[in-house]
Design a protein that fits this description.
There is one protein chain. This protein has 253 residues and is α/β, with parallel strands linked by helices. Helix content is 43%, strand content 19%. It has eleven helices and eleven strands. Helix 2 links the parallel strand 1 and strand 2. Helix 10 crosses helix 11. The longest helix has 20 residues.
């Protein structure tokens, strides 16, 4: 019996080591496919942490009256976030019954968990709103002592540059659009690329180019087992997925 326990212990150590050596798992909009969860909900953040994800990704908008809220789409139940007041947005319910979280409440919950955060600032019509949002996000992350475990991503080139200029040391800033080559990202001061799986399959050489430049590579949104395996085989650093437990099972093999 003792030998069986030792074997089991060594097996789990080997599995954990294999997962640590491979790409790190990022839950896309939190682990929202878990029971009782919803995209960008507090529950999705807690569930991402509970299954051992390296990080949980979430999306941020700024309301008309300057409140930062967490939601993926530009609208929630037909309410356009950037044109609405915080009161209008925060009255909306997610599919799991939660109301739309403010960034403040989201980070307060995150501060109680060890999971890393990946904050996506959505593209706003106003560049001034984006600049204010970058400053406010960074200040709020600092308020909760999360500077060393929060990374930033965006499709906005302006916001990308703002995050690079203002994010604290230790925070990674990644670009999402897929239209810059690694050397350009390096020149701008980014930590790496965060590109769609279709882009990375078209330009797989960018993975080595990034690593040669000291940059990291994340790939999104990777849900098919064959795409997950492609990312694993090509030694990317992070994989963003809606199915973190499936990815973890592949990494464990």
């Amino acid at each position: 019996m003792k030998s069986i326990r030792i074997f089991a212990f060594l097996f789990f150590v080997m599995v954990a080591a294999a997962m640590m050596a491979g790409p790190k798992v990022v839950a896309h909009r939190g682990y929202w496919q878990a029971p009782g969860s919803a995209q960008n909900s507090l529950r999705s953040l807690v569930k991402a942490d509970s299954v051992g994800c390296y990080a949980s990704e979430f999306d941020v908008w700024r309301t008309r009256d300057g409140v930062l809220v967490v939601n993926h789409d530009a609208d929630i139940n037909g309410v356009v976030i950037a044109d609405a007041t915080a009161a209008e947005v925060l009255a909306q319910h997610l599919p799991n019954g939660e109301t739309v979280p403010t960034l403040d409440s989201y980070l307060a919950e995150a501060a109680t968990l060890p999971v890393r955060l990946v904050c996506e600032l959505k593209v706003h019509d106003s560049r001034a709103a984006e600049r204010r949002a970058v400053e406010e996000i960074i200040a709020m992350v600092k308020k909760y002592g999360l500077e060393n475990r929060t990374d930033y991503i965006t499709f906005s080139c302006d916001a990308f540059r703002e995050f690079i200029a203002k994010a604290p040391e230790g925070a990674g800033v990644y670009y999402l659009e897929g239209n810059y080559v690694p050397s350009q990202i390096k020149h701008m001061g980014g930590a790496g690329i965060d590109y769609y799986i279709g882009v990375m399959k078209k330009y797989p050489q960018w993975i080595k180019e990034c690593h040669d430049l000291g940059l990291k590579v994340n790939v999104w949104t990777v849900n098919k087992p064959e795409d997950m395996q492609w990312c694993i085989d090509h030694n990317v650093d992070f994989i963003t997925t809606n199915d973190p437990e499936l990815l973890q099972s592949l990494l464990a093999k």
